[in-house]
Amino acid sequence: MIIDGRKIADELQEEVAREVKKLRENYGIIPGLATISVGEDPASKTYLSMKRRACENVAIHYEEHIFPKGARQGEVIKRILELNDDVRIHGILVQLPLPSHLDEDAILERVSPKKDVDGFNPLNLGNLLIGNENIPPCTPAGIVFMLEKIGVDLRGRHAVVVGRSKIVGRPLAAMFLNRDATVTICHSKTKDLKEYTKQADILVVAAGRAKLITKEMVKEGAVIIDVGMNRIERELCGDVDFEGVKEKASAITPVPGGVGPMTVAMLMKNTLVSARNTLRG
Predict the structure, then answer these.
(1) Which of 117, 176, 186, 192 could form a disulfide with 270 if both were Cys (CB 3.0 to 4.6 A apart)?
(2) Which of 104, 93, 213 is nearest to 165 (CA)?
């Protein structure tokens, strides 16, 4: 089974669009998302254009705040604080990576936890660890949504996550634990990676290394989620050798068309949830 992330994401965005309409009609609230970017990174510009289109498709108000590459940290934080106080904005997303002269952690900490639709504020990450998933990071949330959509029950299953970033690996491991999976995290210092990946019922690979996982490294019938996005010459590929591994997997995500669309769809859902939360005061 090749998991169609685009189809699942489209269905989720249709649901978000219906709920956005209800929120507007019943309470006069139009969910608003503001993105902040620094510099002209081509990949970041591509991701931002995807988010802009997604907002248009579900009728979420969208604003872009673009700073030049040499912007000072104080300027960026000042804009974040202004957006924290802007009642039209329910979600704030800082597009990563930031230029090296900026303190990424310090900037992300200034985003209000109530508007942190990327789920990277330390308070929201801490809540995730204790099982409160009100606004989880988008890519891990998209992966969990996708697995649940295709009927994968995580309870008691062995989930192996390759990669320990705060964007994917660590929060995803917490979400798997919250669903009673047994979780192993592997990373660049793991010895004999194959020993662990061959044990996985669910294998998620977010290592940033093209075709790192080969068919000899996976168990027959495993579910494979490939988060990687790499370019070899003109070819886009993931962290998994798709052609080889699909022969052994019971289900596998392609690259592109797997996890990527789910990340954007979950951002729309998180923005909706953040807007709804304002009704509680």
Answers:
(1) 117
(2) 104
